[in-house]
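Example for tutorial group B:
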């Protein structure tokens, strides 16, 4: 057996370059793959405008350079323009991640004047039927109009579509729609299995054949379309044998502030047991980033166990995702089970094999759509399970 490699804790991490401001969990859509926590309805006390303005100033002073306004649907907040204007004034590069609901000509102009640099518009599919089914709302036509507004206001056109078993066979149509709408960038992000997508994993996980076909089509489209559009295709983690360096390293680049002010190293980290994450109502951003237990627990590699501890790749991926380790291995300090060196890797393989079996019936189960009532019910169940 190899001798353990020396551990190198990150003694002085760099600044939180990327601030993700999740300004609200409210959202008029009900996506079955929503990345908000399943119990989002329990965290409904939103930061006030003044709190967000202070967070922006503190984050900028701590070295943040990019600010993403996300949610929920960030346009549900009437003060979004005020927050964007302050972020712009402070020198952030600003990005709005939106479903498009709430973006009319008046607000688009106000956001333009506030200095918003970039909008990412999400679609669920290239057809009205599937888009509206997956979001459980009639939003397809509205999204087409919003795409026009984005062009009209001179923003770069960046589209995002979450890909899964139900729409992966239509990637070519989605790409063609993006080109027609004048998109310069298209992110085809295969669903990752957290939160609501984990509840619906049986129905959403594509088969290997679907994934391989989609990858081939995306490559053909890249050839056919050349410079007209840049297409990113993000494969589901479950189909990999090595994990990603989650969030580019825990507490190394990303700082997420949730609607109620909880500061997290990634937007799903609140699920992890035994960690008390700080709140921006009680602590300033610099102290949170450099001094809180929540941000230092999994920084560097001093916390690792084997197989990661003695692995030559630990610098590359930092052991993968802590949330995935907790969800699939029951231990947040374990190797991400996506890694084929993890003793829990078979759990990932099983899910993929099941989804790839032509006789698989799980995909036909009804989807669980995100909504506040469901969130309260599921949150109460989760809590009573955690309390024993
Ligand atoms: S994934 Fe869908 S439901 Fe969730 S916040 Fe985004 S638009 Fe709303
Ligand atoms: S054992 Fe750990 S560090 Fe090594 S490749 Fe797997 S997840 Fe990464």
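The residue assignment follows.
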């Amino acid at each position: 057996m190899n001798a353990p490699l020396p551990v190198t804790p990150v003694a002085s991490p760099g600044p939180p370059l990327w601030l993700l401001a999740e300004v609200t969990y409210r959202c008029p859509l009900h996506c079955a793959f929503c990345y908000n926590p399943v119990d989002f309805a329990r965290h409904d006390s939103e930061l006030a405008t003044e709190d967000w303005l202070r967070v922006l100033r503190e984050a900028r002073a701590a070295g943040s350079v990019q600010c993403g306004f996300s949610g929920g649907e960030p346009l549900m907040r009437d003060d979004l323009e005020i927050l964007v204007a302050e972020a712009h004034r402070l020198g952030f590069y600003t990005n709005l991640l939106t479903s498009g609901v709430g973006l009319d000509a008046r607000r688009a102009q106000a956001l333009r004047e506030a200095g918003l640099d970039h909008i990412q518009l999400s679609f669920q599919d290239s057809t009205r039927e599937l888009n509206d089914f997956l979001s459980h709302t009639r939003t397809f036509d509205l999204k087409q109009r919003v795409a026009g507004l984005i062009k009209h206001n001179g923003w770069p056109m960046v589209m995002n579509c979450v890909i899964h078993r139900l729409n992966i066979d239509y990637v070519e149509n989605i790409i063609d729609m993006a080109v027609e709408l004048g998109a310069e960038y298209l992110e085809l992000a295969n669903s990752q299995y957290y939160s609501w997508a984990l509840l619906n994993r049986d129905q959403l996980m594509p088969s290997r054949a679907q994934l391989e076909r989609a990858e081939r089509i995306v490559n053909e489209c890249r050839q056919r379309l050349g410079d007209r559009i840049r297409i990113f295709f993000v494969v589901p983690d479950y189909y990999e044998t090595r994990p990603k360096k989650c969030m580019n390293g825990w507490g190394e680049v990303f700082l997420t502030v949730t609607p109620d002010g909880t500061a997290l190293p990634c937007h799903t980290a609140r699920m992890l047991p035994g960690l008390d994450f700080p709140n921006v109502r009680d602590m300033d951003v610099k102290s949170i980033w450099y001094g809180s237990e929540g941000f230092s627990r999994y920084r560097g590699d001093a916390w690792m166990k084997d197989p990661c501890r003695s692995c030559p790749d630990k610098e590359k991926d930092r052991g993968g995702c802590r949330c995935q380790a907790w969800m699939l291995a029951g231990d947040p300090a374990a190797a991400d089970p996506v890694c084929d060196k993890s003793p829990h890797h078979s759990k990932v393989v099983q899910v993929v094999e099941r989804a790839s079996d032509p006789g698989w019936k799980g995909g036909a189960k009804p989807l669980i759509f995100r909504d506040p009532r469901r969130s309260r019910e599921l949150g109460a169940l989760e809590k009573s399970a955690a309390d024993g």
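Residues 208-225 form the longest helix (18 residues). Compare this with the pattern of hydrophobic and polar residues in the output above.
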